[in-house]
Design a protein that fits this description.
With 363 residues, this protein is an alpha/beta fold. 56% of the residues lie in helices and 12% in strands. It has a single domain, classed as TIM Barrel (Alpha-Beta Barrel), CATH 3.20.20.
Length: 363
């Protein structure tokens, strides 16, 4: 039994935050699934690194160029092939868990982050094209993304709501999911066939808040604690939202909770333990998606214990103290959302430029 199996016994799934052709061809992903990885996430930055910065795709690129495919068609063919293959590898997990796990996420174009209608149509197209029940479509949790999340869940599409940094954002995403399930129920849909996660970003919060705390004479003792406090407060909200009469009606129709997913869980500060954001956030009905170096660290020396619900009073006290130290957490998280959307869009544009350059070279 690995550390991942032990974490899973405490109610948390561990997903892999990475994809590239070599991972699939070499059997590395299959081995990680044996070790207890039960899902996979991707984003434009990951695909940029995989496609533009490796030779994994040279032969596939050559064939697509010879077939006279456009830049957009080349990117999509490469990405969807990887996502589809990963989903097939994880399909036994999906079947074994009755659809509770085994998902692979692919993001709608980040250029659509502020466009509700085109996000919905793009998500529908991707879900239909991949044609697998264990695909999740990632939708940024922007104001325009909230109605898209509701509409997609209402259409029976699995959604990974991403780039969540604040409690307000998290609550809006969870409410959108519940409203979407109510739409689906009203239309006579099968609620048990829909799953969703709310991707709550961790380490970037500490990086931003620590920078502000460094400038305050009393800030040092609070450094490295805000991200975990923020996540634990969100988990407390999760417990409140997925409870009560309204939710009970949906559960009676087969609804699943929308699990909080801890994203961006590699530590950016070398002074912090490399498994900090895994060890301190283990609890029921959650997911932690980890990049390659963090996955190896967890398998090697992760500490497995039910930590997520511990110390809630301290967490709330920590968050309440931040304004006294001139830290506006709402402003910080809004800035992180804006930068996150811009960063993914930039990575996507850079990826397409790289594909275009390779296409011209091959031509």
């Amino acid at each position: 039994m690995t550390k991942l199996h032990e974490i899973n016994q405490l109610g948390q799934s561990v997903w892999y935050d990475n994809i590239r052709r070599a991972l699939l061809d070499s059997g590395e992903l299959a081995a990680y699934i044996e070790d207890g990885v039960s899902g996979l996430t991707s984003n434009p930055s990951i695909f940029k690194k995989a496609i533009a910065d490796s030779s994994d795709y040279d032969e596939a690129l050559r064939q697509l160029v010879q077939a006279d495919k456009s830049v957009d068609e080349i990117y999509e063919a490469l990405a969807l092939d990887d996502i589809g293959r990963a989903a097939d590898l994880l399909r036994p997990v999906y079947e074994r868990t009755g659809g509770a796990d085994g998902y692979v996420s692919i993001e709608v174009s980040p250029t659509l982050a502020h466009d509700t209608e085109n996000t919905i149509s793009e998500a529908r197209r991707l879900f239909a094209t991949l044609e697998r029940p264990n695909i999740m479509i990632k939708v940024p949790a922007t104001p325009a993304g909230m109605p898209a999340i509701e509409a997609l869940v209402g259409a029976g599409i699995n959604v990974n709501a991403t780039l969540i940094f604040s409690l307000g954002q998290y609550e809006a995403v969870a409410r959108a999911y519940v409203a979407g399930l109510e739409q689906l129920a009203k239309a006579g849909g099968d609620l048990s066939r829909v799953a969703s996660v709310a991707s709550f970003f961790i380490s970037r919060v500490d990086s931003a808040v620590d920078k502000a705390l460094q400038t305050h004479p009393q800030g040092a003792p609070l450094m490295g604690k805000t991200a975990i406090a923020n996540a634990k407060a969100a988990y407390a909200r999760f417990g409140e939202i997925f409870d009560g009469e309204r939710w009970a009606k949906l559960v009676a129709r087969g609804a699943r909770v929308q699990r909080p997913l801890w994203a961006s869980t590699s530590t950016k500060n070398p002074d912090y333990p490399d498994t900090l954001y895994i060890d301190e956030l283990i609890g029921p009905d959650t997911v932690n998606t980890v990049p390659p170096s963090t996955l190896k660290a967890v398998l090697d020396h992760g500490r497995v214990a039910p930590t997520l619900e511990a110390g809630l009073d301290e967490v709330l006290a920590h968050l309440a103290r931040l304004p006294e130290l001139d830290v506006d957490l709402d402003a910080v998280t809004q800035d992180l959302l804006d930068k996150g959307v811009a960063s993914f869009a930039q990575a996507f544009e850079s990826l397409l430029e790289s594909v275009a350059a390779r296409r011209e070279q091959l031509l």
